[in-house]
Amino acid sequence: MPERSLTSVPTAVRDATPADHPAIRDVLRAAYQQYDTVLPPGVFGTYLEDILDLDTRARTGRLLVAERDGRIVGAVTFYEDAATEGFGWPSGWAGLRALGVHPAARGQGIGHQLMEACLLGARRVGAEVLCLHSAAFMTDALAIYDAMGFVRVPEFDFEATAFLQIGGAEPIKIIAFRLDFSNHRNTHTRSTP
Fold first, then answer.
1. For the segment 62-76, what is each residue's pLDDT rounded down to a tens digit?
2. Neighbours of 41 (CB within 10 A)
3. What distance in Å separates the CA atoms of residue 78 and residue 58, rounded to the nearest whole number?
4. What angle do CA 141, 147, 148 make, to 5 degrees?
5. How many domains does the chain have?
6. Radius of gyration, CA atoms only, the chain
7. Phi/psi at 101 (nearest 5 deg)?
8. Which H or E element spans position 96?
């Protein structure tokens, strides 16, 4: 019997369990590996350690995974109150961080499905805004955020090497975005956080 194509298998978005952490780390490591050559020398390793710190993010947010055919292919952290993320967001905004899709599963709508789960979660808790940080070198992500209607909020930008306490490295600006639900067009979500 031939193996089914991954694209023909439905994707489910669900809350992660601690048992999922190794698979989530594998997905995020693969998803963020492309930035190793983009970031200044000595920065990527520390940046990746921060992205892979699931224990900290699980205490303040909800780890969500996209699963296909029993395999985790994507992940994101959703914050019902973005202030708990620790980046200076106002209380009452929802947020998300460290969205990643395994490179072998990209182009199949998984990132969009994870974003939609965060949008639905934000609406469920009554947040008026969903916010996130990104970087100029994350061009694919920026295109998705723009298409979804996110707008820049520079007052919440920060410098990554200072945050990560990496001395002597070239500064990396982390840029902030928000999506106001009063301005967001309705979308249909097939999965829930």
1. 999 999 999 999 999
2. 10
3. 9
4. 90
5. 1
6. 16
7. -125, 135
8. strand 94-101
- Dihedral Cα 115, 182, 132, 137, nearest 10 deg: 80
pLDDT tier at 183 (50, 70, 90 boundaries)? low
Q: What is the pLDDT of residues 105-144, one digit of tens each?
A: 999 999 999 999 999 999 999 999 999 999 999 998 999 8
CATH number for the domain spanning 35: value is 3.40.630.30
User: 2-6: long-range contacts at Cβ-Cβ below 8 A with a sequence spacing of 24 or more?
Assistant: 4/69, 6/68, 6/69, 6/73, 6/104, 6/105, 6/108
pLDDT score at 169: 76
Long-range interactions of 79-83: CB distance < 8 A, separation 24+: 80/121, 80/122, 80/125, 80/127, 81/125, 81/127, 82/131
Task: Let me know how long the chain is.
Answer: 193
Asked whether residue 3 is domain-assigned, the answer is no
